[in-house]
Amino acid sequence: MIPRQTRTASPARPPFGRDEVDAVRWPDVAGLPSARPGHTAVARWLVGRALRRLSLVDLHGGVDPRASRGAGAGPVMTLHDPDAFYRRIARDGLIGFGESYMAGEWDSEDLPGVLTVLAAHADNLVPAPLRRLRPLWASARPGSDRNTPRGARRNIQRHYDLSNDLFAAFLDPTLTYSSAVFTAFPARFESLAAAQHRKIDRLLDLAEVHGGTRLLEIGTGWGELALRAAGRGAHVTTLTLSTEQAELARERIRSAGFEDRVEVLVRDYRSIEDRYDAVVSVEMIEAVGAEYWPSYFTALSGALAPGGRIALQAITMGHQQMLNTAATHTWISKYVFPGGLIPSREAIAEHSGTAGLRVLADNGYGEHYAETLRLWRERFTTHRETVAGLGFDLVFQRMWELYLAYSEAGFRSRYLDVRQILLTEGTHR
Questions:
Q1: Which of 107, 141, 154, 236 has the most CB atoms in a 10 Å sphere around its CB?
Q2: Which residue from 363, 374, 380 is spatially nearest to 406, judged by alpha carbons?
Q3: How far apart are CA 373 and CA 375, in angstroms?
């Protein structure tokens, strides 16, 4: 086998042309945005300078640039259409960066590698004096994405109701869509399902779920945590806003014989009425939105019986990065998680404290999420034909691959973390 760093390649070609993109489904990908020539020139200078400084760019030269850089050379992105690439970034910043990938205008044989380098330098890609100009090009989040009770259901359905079969194509048989916990890296000697069960068991142990526990789960997914808790003898009420998830979760619960122990409700967390011995919520706070974090933690607190425990699993980011992201419409918020925002640890502590809760434990394991995402991404690319057969076109496939690689890079660069947090009643409640 020829080592990658010495291999030559024929001139790289884009996977398709913009004229092949469905303009009705992907209007902002099919067409190039209007951008002032001066803005495009600035983007070309700023972004090109950053990519060259990080040794990331290949201007479609026809030879793998790693061949001249020697063994151990880093990842490279190939610009199939540099003019379109810089024009999109000039007009829409990081949204344009993502749409350019969706349009096939740039590629990489190591997509997570490129994105990890960019994420690791996210705070200094733009010269410091120019960072203050961010509000001039960053778009505000659309008001239609607000997580009102009606808006939250619409936002959740846009992601989680795409197709149960789509998620089954890249998740493990437990259909668990959150970070696993592994015993070693890379995960070669254990199944992803076993690592997901380890994660779930740690959360149930944190919440002290056992026989007879009245457990509330906020965010059902496809029901694996509820099944695991019912297997311990707990009585579970689990809430979701996804009708497709609820349908399959109920089917799985019936098949396991736990209908008498698990109730799946299509209901907003703001509609909780009863009190429970334990509450578990796994990677659901990211979908709540900063505007509604007070409501979320008030609902958690109000659902807790005296002496009860709350176990959260949450993706987190740095506080200043969170503040910047909260004020900006991003590629992720436009195409993947409308209305979503990853909180900081400070935001969680602040809003939970205001709701009368206190943090008793807070443990991070971001490297486990990077590994989980690597496995999901590899499964997704392996099953491209299955995904295509479900009606998801090449633009969607590239969008989803970028989303998984983008997320993996966030954890590999430590820009993101994932944490298991234990909350209980505050002393003043």
A1: 236
A2: 374
A3: 5
DSSP H or E segment with residue 425:
strand 416-425
Q: Are strands 57-58 and 77-79 parallel, antiparallel or unpaired?
A: parallel
d(CA 354, CA 160): 31
Q: DSSP letter string over 221-235? A: TTSHHHHHHHHTT-E
The predicted structure's pLDDT at residue 138: 65
- The structure's pTM equals 0.91
Strand runs labelled E in 250-365: 262-266, 276-282, 304-317, 357-364
At 4 the pLDDT is 32
Q: What is the mean pLDDT of each run of 10 residues along the chain (429 residues)?
A: 33 75 96 83 86 79 48 81 93 93 96 94 65 61 90 93 96 98 81 97 98 98 98 98 97 98 97 96 97 97 97 97 91 95 97 97 96 97 97 97 98 97 78
25 exposed, middle or buried (CB, 10 Å; 0-12, 13-18, 19+)?
exposed
Instruction: Please report the domains of the chain, with CATH numbers, ordered by start residue.
Output: 4-138 (no CATH), 145-425 (3.40.50.150)
- Are 98 and 331 a contacting pair, CB within 8 Å? yes
